[in-house]
Amino acid sequence: MRADPKAQAGTLELAGIDAEIGRLNHQRRTLSEHAELESAESAVQEAKDAVVRAETRAGDLDRDIARIERDVEGVRARTEKDKGLLAGSGVGAKQATELQHELDTLARRQGVLEDEQLEIMEEREAVGGELDHARATLSEAEKSLTAVTERRDSAVADLDAAQAGRDRDRTTAVGALPDDLLADYERLRGKGRVAAGALDGSRCGACRLELDRTFLSRIRGLDAEEVVHCEECGAILVRAR
Question: Where do the C4-type zinc ribbon domain residues begin and end (predicted)?
Answer without folding.
Answer: 203-237
